[in-house]
From TrEMBL:
<feature type="transmembrane region" description="Helical">
    <location>
        <begin position="12"/>
        <end position="34"/>
    </location>
</feature>
<keyword id="KW-0812">Transmembrane</keyword>
<dbReference type="GO" id="GO:0016717">
    <property type="term" value="F:oxidoreductase activity, acting on paired donors, with oxidation of a pair of donors resulting in the reduction of molecular oxygen to two molecules of water"/>
</dbReference>
<feature type="transmembrane region" description="Helical">
    <location>
        <begin position="78"/>
        <end position="96"/>
    </location>
</feature>
<feature type="transmembrane region" description="Helical">
    <location>
        <begin position="142"/>
        <end position="164"/>
    </location>
</feature>
<feature type="transmembrane region" description="Helical">
    <location>
        <begin position="40"/>
        <end position="58"/>
    </location>
</feature>
<protein>
    <recommendedName>
        <fullName>Fatty acid desaturase domain-containing protein</fullName>
    </recommendedName>
</protein>
<keyword id="KW-0472">Membrane</keyword>
<dbReference type="GO" id="GO:0008610">
    <property type="term" value="P:lipid biosynthetic process"/>
</dbReference>
<keyword id="KW-1133">Transmembrane helix</keyword>
<dbReference type="InterPro" id="IPR012171">
    <property type="entry name" value="Fatty_acid_desaturase"/>
</dbReference>
<dbReference type="Pfam" id="PF00487">
    <property type="entry name" value="FA_desaturase"/>
</dbReference>
<dbReference type="InterPro" id="IPR005804">
    <property type="entry name" value="FA_desaturase_dom"/>
</dbReference>
<dbReference type="GO" id="GO:0016020">
    <property type="term" value="C:membrane"/>
</dbReference>
<feature type="domain" description="Fatty acid desaturase">
    <location>
        <begin position="39"/>
        <end position="202"/>
    </location>
</feature>
<feature type="region of interest" description="Disordered">
    <location>
        <begin position="225"/>
        <end position="255"/>
    </location>
</feature>
<feature type="compositionally biased region" description="Polar residues">
    <location>
        <begin position="230"/>
        <end position="239"/>
    </location>
</feature>
Amino acid sequence: MVRELGLLRRARWFYALVFAVLCLAVAGACVGFALLGDSWWQLLIAGVFGVACTQFAFLAHEASHRQIFASGPANDRVGRLLGTLLVGISYSWWMGKHTRHHGNPNRVGKDPDIAPGVVSFRAEDAAAQRGFLAMMNRRQGYAFFPLLTLEGVNLHVSSIRFLFGRGKITGRWTEIGLIAAHLALIIVPAFVFLSRGWPPHSAVCSWRSSASTWARRSHPTTRACRWSARTRNSTSSPNRYEPRATSADASGRAR
């Protein structure tokens, strides 16, 4: 019945449309990133990139389930490019983990998604924990949603550890190269367009200057900001910081 209704038919055009929209969003974010430069507003751009990467990860997930193409190798190629290059997670690691999960859903010892760790799914697993993990298990109901913000980091670290492990992995060096390219796409633009220190110098000066204007102060509060202000003002008005001529000086020059 389900197959006759066409519910299992692959929606290639839908995935193509989603991919195109995501590419446009990423392109717009890249333009905004370049135009904003060294600014705290880059945090908004980072949010756009984060949402786009999550959606690319969902597309890679669909490819791993053979939902995009009829051919298995075609789905694997697309999933590897989306998941490993654009998201930074090993597609081979994900396939192994996710396949075991769907093959043995919620079966203790076989489903890796319910393995004990920071969060335990069984009382006996929580009772066997010691130290930090035991403390987290006792409070996992409160910590669950905050911990979800670190799940992306956990996925990245786990997949990289898998790639550098001793097991046999098909396409190991291909995926290592794709993850290296992914990291380069993040790190290189950050050092090219953003300041090389923390916090960003111009961002601090801009914030302090705005605060000074609001408080009706005539100069920034730090030496670096004062130097920046003098440089800008000397360019626009060379005599701004020169002492004003008194009436005596003016009469002397007149003579």
